[in-house]
Design brief:
Two copies of one chain form a homodimer.
Chain A: E1 9-10, E2 18-21, E3 48-50, E4 59-62, E5 65-70, E6 79-80, E7 85-86, E8 113-118, E9 124-125, E10 129-134, H1 140-154, E11 163-167, H2 183-193, E12 203-206, H3 214-217, E13 232-234, H4 243-262, E14 267-270, E15 275-280, H5 291-304, E16 308-311, H6 321-327, H7 331-349, H8 361-365, H9 371-378, E17 387-391, E18 401-405, H10 411-420, E19 425-430, E20 443-447, H11 450-455, E21 462-463, H12 466-469, H13 474-489, H14 496-500
Parallel strand pairs in A: 10-11, 10-12, 12-13, 15-16, 15-19, 16-18, 17-18, 19-20, 20-21
Antiparallel strand pairs in A: 1-2, 2-3, 3-6, 4-5, 5-7, 8-9, 8-14
Helix pairs in contact in A: 1-4, 2-10, 5-13, 6-7
The structure holds calcium ion (5 copies).
Residues 279-281, 313, 409, 411, 414 of chain A line the site of one calcium ion (CA).
Chain lengths: 515, 515
C-alpha cells in the first residue's frame, strides 16, 4: 500500500470527468498525482477536481451521471466548486423507465443467523424492550416520571428485559386531526407501538380529552392481545385520585408486561428476519464512494439472505429516481415510487420550496455541490438488487428484499418512520459526523472518512474511510457491516450509541397544520 | 350557602338564553330549579339548558354573544347539545371596530413585590436556571447525557442555582431554512435562550454541519456577554477527540456559567417585573365562567401593578376578535391584531382547514359546542384592560400591560412561544384536567371545577370551581391567583408540577416544510 501522504483522488465511474480529493486537509496548487494530473489551485478534501478542461456549459459527470453544468471555464486540474456548477432539473416524473432494467435476483446467501426474540406476529426483535405509547403530548411529563420509577424500582427484577421506553411526541391534540396527511402521524404512532423490538405487548397512556383517542391510534382489532386485557391507562379517568394513583396505575400495567417480556429467550433466527433501515446524515463527497457503497454491498448480502432492507429520504432519491424506477421488480412498484416522489414534490411546492432546500452548509463544505450529487451518492446505499416494494411514510413494511420506505431526509424523522416501518436494526452513514442514536433499535454508525472514525473512536462503529485510502475494499467493509449487524442484532455486541445511551427523541412527520 | 345537591345553573350575561348546569354528573329530566325552570330531558354537567323555547334558526346567546343558531326546535328546559347548533362565520377581518371602545386605564395597584433575580438586561427571573441551547436535534442525545452528569456532579456545588435544562427541539436541519415562516422557529430558539429565568448566561451546543448555525440562532451581537467569552461548543470541532472530550467541553463551559449564576441573590422587585403568560387547555363549559374570569381578574390586578400579561391561542381568539380590536389601546394595535388573525386564517386555509379544527372531543364532552363558545370563554382570561400590544409567534414581548402574543392553541407550542416571549410565570386553566408543566418557568394550574380540583388534589394549584358552587367569588379567586403568583415567583411556594418535576418538552411552531 502506498504512503498516506501520497496525493490521491477517486474517480468512481470511467466516464466521470471529475474526481474527489482523498487526502486529509486537501491538497495545494501544484500537486502532481501519479496519473500526471497537476492541481491548478488548492482543492479541499472531498471536493472535486476536473480531470479534463471544461468549457462553460459542459456537463459535469460523476457516478457516470450528469450532476450539473459548468457555470464558467475550469482548467484540467482546477477545483469544481459549488458555485462553478448549475443544477439540472430533476427527472420528469411522467417519462420514467418503468421496470425496464430489473436486475436478475441475486444468488441466495444461506446459513447466516442471529439470536433474536420471536414475536407472536412472526416478526423478530433484536431487543426485548417495554414500550409505553402515548396518544398525546400532555401525558409526556407523567409518563417520563413513571418510566424513571419503573426503571429504578421494577426493571431490576426483570433481568431479561433490556429497557423501558416512553414513546412521547408532539402530536395528538392541537392539530387538525382531519387534515389531509393526518393519517401519516397517526399510523406512524400505531406502527411504532408494533415495532418488533417491543415484543407485541403494547400499552397506551391517554389523557382522555385529546383529539387522537386510543381507539384511533391503536384499535383493539390491531392485535389479539389487546382484546384479552386492558392496555390503556387514561389519566382523566375518575378512578385515579391524584397524581400518585395515576403513576401507580401506569406502574401496575407496566409490571404485567415486564413479567411477560421477562419470560422470553433469544432463539436462533435466520438473517431473513432482519428488517434493516439504512440512512445517511451529515454527508460529504466521500459518502458516495466509501460508506454508502459499502452499505450497499451489505444491503445486497442482506437481500441475498432473505432479509428486508429499507432505504428512504425522498429528497435524496428524487434526482436518481430514473435509475430506481428502471430497477423496480415490476411496473407497479415503479409506479408506487413515482407516486411517492410526486407526493413529496407537491408537499414542498405547496410551501414554495423544492428539493434544493436539502443540502446543508456542512454537506457543501464536505464537497457536495448540489442535491443531484448528494442523491447519486445517497442511493449507493441501496445496492444492486431489484426494488421489491415502495411504502408511504409511517406504513409498516412486510415485503422481503429491497424496499423504498418514503420519508423526509431529516435524520430523526427518517429514523422514526423507519422504526414505524418495523425496523429492528439501523445502519447510519456519516461524513461530517453525528452522534445519532435511537432507543428502539440499535444504530450502527459508519464513517465515510478514516479521520472521522479515528477522531470519533468512541462513537463510530465502522470505518469505511479505509476504502478511500486503499486499506480495504468496498467488499471488505460490506462484509464487516453485515457481520456486525448479525452480532449487534444478537445482543453480542453493543453499538457506541447504546454504550453511551445516546437516544434521540422520536420526531413525527406531520404534513398538516397545528391549531 | 345552599346545599351541594340543590340544582344549579349559571347564566353569565343577562341577555343569555342558555345557561350551563353546575351539578356534578348533570341533572335528570324533571329537575326543577329555584327559578321554576324544569328540565325536559337530562342535561350533562357543564352542558347548556335552554332558558326559553327556541325555534329552528334562533340565535343562541351566551356571554351576551351569539354562539350559533339552533338547527331544530328546543323547548324551554331542553338540552342545547352540540348537534343542535350551527356555527356562525367568524367576524370578517376587514370590517372590525378599531380602538373604538378603548377602556380607561385601570387604577394603579401599588406596593406589591416579589423576590426575583435581576438580569443585566433589566428583566427579572423567578428562577435561577442554567439553560443549554442547541442549534440542531442531532446534538440532543449528547446534551441530555451531559446534563445528567452536570446535575449529578456539578449542580450540588452551586446551591443557588435551581436547575440545569437542555433546550432541545426538532429543528435546525432537515428543514427548509429559507422557507416563508422559518423565521418563527429561529427567533423562538433565540428568544428562548434569552428567557429571564436563564440569567442572561446562554451557552449553545452546535453540531457543526447543520443548517441553522449558532451565528444565525444567537449572533454575538445579541448580548454583550457573548463577545466576552466563548459561548458555543461545536461537537464536530477537531479539538474534540472522542465523545468523552465533547462531554468534558460541555461540562467545563457549564461550570463557568454555574459559578456566575451561583453568585446571584434574590432581591425585592416590583410586581411590574412579572411577565405572566396565560393559557387554557382541556377546556370545558366552566372555563368561561369560573377559572378564566378569575384569571382575567388576576390579569387586571397584574396590569394595574404595572406587569406584563400575555394571552395567546389565535384560534380561540379569532371568533372574539371584534371585542378585542375595539378594546385596543390605539388603531395600530388593533391593526396588529388583525394582521395576526389574517396570517393564521391563511396558514390554516393553505392546508384546507379552518378554526373549527380546534375544539377537541373532550371540549365537546365538556359542554363546548363549537369554537365560538370556546373562544368567548377563552378570552375571559384577558380581563378588562386596554390591549397594549400584539406580537407575532416567538417574538420577545417588551411592552407592559395586556399583550396578545400570537401562538397556536396547542398547549406546549403556546407555552414554548410564551417562554420565548420572555414569560417568567405561567398560569394555566383546565377543565378536563391536564398534568402540564414546563422546566423554564413555574406553572400555576387552575381548575374550572371543584370535582377536578379535589380528584387532582396534588396537581391543581387553585380551585376556581368554588365560583360555580357559590363558595367564592370571581374576585376572591382572582386575588388568590394574584397572591400565589407573587409567592411562587419569589420561590416561597412550589407548584405541583414543579413538586413532581413534570416538565414537558419544548414544541416549536414551524409553519414550513421538512426536507
Ligand atoms: Ca441523507
Ligand atoms: Ca438523513
Ligand atoms: Ca426528553
Ligand atoms: Ca385554550
Ligand atoms: Ca392551549
Amino acid at each position: 500500500m502506498s504512503s498516506e501522504n501520497e496525493p490521491r483522488y477517486i474517480q468512481v465511474h470511467p466516464q466521470d470527468n471529475v474526481a474527489i480529493i482523498v487526502n486529509p486537509g486537501g491538497l495545494p496548487a501544484g500537486t502532481e498525482f501519479p496519473s500526471g494530473l497537476v492541481l491548478q489551485e488548492a482543492v479541499p478534501e472531498a471536493h472535486k477536481v476536473a480531470l479534463v478542461a471544461l468549457q462553460p456549459g459542459d456537463a459535469v459527470i460523476r457516478y457516470g451521471s450528469v450532476i450539473g453544468y459548468t457555470a464558467r471555464a475550469i482548467p484540467q486540474g482546477g477545483w469544481v466548486a459549488e458555485d462553478a456548477l448549475t443544477s439540472p432539473p430533476p427527472p420528469a416524473l411522467d417519462a420514467l423507465p418503468l421496470a425496464t432494467e430489473t436486475p436478475a435476483a441475486l444468488p441466495p446467501l444461506e446459513g447466516y443467523t442471529f439470536q433474536g426474540y420471536r414475536n407472536p406476529d412472526g416478526t423478530v426483535g433484536t431487543r426485548n424492550i417495554l414500550g409505553i405509547s402515548t396518544t398525546v403530548q400532555c401525558v409526556a411529563g407523567t409518563v417520563d416520571y413513571a418510566v424513571r420509577r419503573i426503571k429504578q424500582e421494577l426493571l431490576p427484577k426483570y433481568p431479561n428485559v433490556d429497557d423501558v421506553i416512553a414513546i412521547t411526541h408532539n402530536y395528538g391534540c392541537g392539530v387538525a386531526i382531519n387534515a389531509p396527511g393526518a393519517e401519516i402521524p397517526i399510523r406512524t404512532l400505531r406502527n411504532l407501538s408494533l415495532n418488533p423490538n417491543l415484543g407485541g405487548a403494547p400499552m397506551v397512556v391517554s389523557l382522555g380529552c385529546e383529539k387522537m383517542q386510543p381507539s384511533q391510534m391503536l384499535p383493539v382489532s390491531t392485535l389479539p392481545v389487546l382484546s384479552e386485557e386492558p392496555y390503556v391507562v387514561r389519566l382523566q379517568d375518575e378512578e385515579h385520585y391524584g397524581f400518585e394513583e395515576m403513576v401507580s396505575a401506569l406502574m401496575e400495567m407496566a409490571e404485567k408486561r415486564l413479567e411477560r417480556l421477562n419470560q422470553r429467550k433469544r432463539v436462533t433466527c435466520p438473517a431473513s428476519d432482519l428488517v434493516v433501515g439504512l440512512q445517511c446524515g451529515g454527508s460529504d463527497a466521500f459518502s458516495g464512494v466509501t460508506a454508502n457503497p459499502a452499505v450497499g454491498f451489505a444491503a445486497d448480502l442482506l437481500v441475498r439472505a432473505g432479509a428486508t432492507v429499507m432505504f428512504s429520504e425522498v429528497t435524496e432519491v428524487r434526482d436518481a429516481v430514473h435509475l430506481l424506477t428502471a430497477r423496480a421488480a415490476n411496473e407497479q412498484v415503479a409506479r408506487d415510487l413515482v407516486r411517492e416522489m410526486a407526493w413529496y414534490d407537491e408537499y414542498l411546492a405547496h410551501d414554495n420550496v423544492d428539493r434544493s432546500a436539502n443540502p446543508s452548509p456542512g454537506n457543501k463544505k464536505g464537497g457536495l455541490a448540489n442535491i443531484v450529487e448528494k442523491a447519486l451518492g445517497s442511493v449507493a446505499k441501496a445496492g444492486t438488487s431489484p426494488l421489491a416494494a415502495v411504502t408511504g411514510p409511517g406504513e409498516r413494511v412486510t415485503t422481503k428484499g429491497l424496499v423504498f420506505a418514503a420519508t423526509p431526509a431529516s435524520d430523526f424523522i427518517c429514523g422514526t418512520l423507519q422504526l414505524a416501518a418495523a425496523m429492528n436494526m439501523h445502519v447510519f452513514t456519516t461524513g461530517r459526523g453525528t452522534p445519532y442514536g435511537l432507543a428502539m433499535a440499535p444504530v450502527i454508525k459508519v464513517a465515510t472518512r478514516s479521520s472521522l472514525a479515528k477522531r470519533w473512536f468512541d462513537l463510530i462503529d465502522v470505518d469505511a474511510g479505509k476504502i478511500a485510502t486503499g486499506e480495504a475494499t468496498i467488499e471488505d467493509i460490506g462484509w464487516e457491516i453485515f457481520r456486525l449487524i448479525l452480532k449487534v442484532a444478537s445482543g453480542e455486541q453493543q453499538t457506541w450509541a447504546d454504550r453511551w445511551g445516546l437516544h434521540n427523541e422520536y420526531a413525527l412527520f406531520n404534513p398538516g397544520p397545528v391549531t
